[in-house]
């Protein structure tokens, strides 16, 4: 990374809607960043993107871009099936990465990528922006301090709506390209925040179905989750819900804390309700934050840049970024097998380690490759 008084050179890989509508505004909000290049497999789209945002260089080949531009950070905004190769190429070139969700198509891919990181960097971190709003940060701090008591009961619902036209994009709704349905591509944000708040999970019992959309994957799933603290949480992920909402609720001995939003929140989306024996407590006395920072890519990016300059691992990377992916694999395994699944079962001899739908051929190919590497 450059010295503290020098700008951080950033390149974007994938010039689609999320790069245009979300990542570029977040990058431009950082005074210490200069976007120097954009890459897309569609060279014309890369050139149009560069012209719109006044970016000096447009590329269609990643290796050439990394050699020519030598960025400090690459932001990967490609569809999920392209994450692995792009991230590994960047890490091997000594470049840190911020990658869109879901991190990878499988836990095996995640672990493969992690092997290309080095102590002190480069690192890859993943977009889980809901952790970084002031409401979530305050709640997590109160849980660490124990001021609300041990969490007891929770709700984590991602009730969204995606019509048939949404799935006309070829890579959506497939195991091979998207890695899963709403658990993988939509509810992952709420579930990541659930895990960041509640800590380590110990068991998941799940069910999933394809009820209305012409997709390979599920279009709805439900789960009951147990945590090391003893807490229990209900989880729903849906793309069939016309009144859309993202809803999280955490019940403690001292209070109920709720978040109701859709794609992002600020403090106005949170409700802090005292337990009856604390009826005289205001939200502020319960611990509601005074500062009001919305959850956003901008909020996460600011902290990511700070960590990269310091040569330290950012949040939402390494084991911290892996947690929700492993949880989703266990959810899918439980739904398919009709039995509870625990974290320690997700090992390389488990098909769900290699593929979110437990495809035995994918697992067999992966194991053959691992054996060849160690032969």
UniProtKB/TrEMBL annotation:
Q: Where is the Gfo/Idh/MocA-like oxidoreductase N-terminal domain?
A: 9-124
- Its domain of life? Bacteria
**Pfam families named in the record:** GFO_IDH_MocA, GFO_IDH_MocA_C3
- The segment annotated Disordered runs over 338-361
Q: Report domain GFO/IDH/MocA-like oxidoreductase positions.
A: 137-244
Q: Which PANTHER family match?
A: D-GLUCOSIDE 3-DEHYDROGENASE, UDP-N-ACETYL-2-AMINO-2-DEOXY-D-GLUCURONATE OXIDASE
The protein depicted here goes by the name: Gfo/Idh/MocA family oxidoreductase
What organism is this sequence from?
Streptomyces gossypii
From the broadest rank down, the organism's phylogenetic lineage runs: Bacteria, Bacillati, Actinomycetota, Actinomycetes, Kitasatosporales
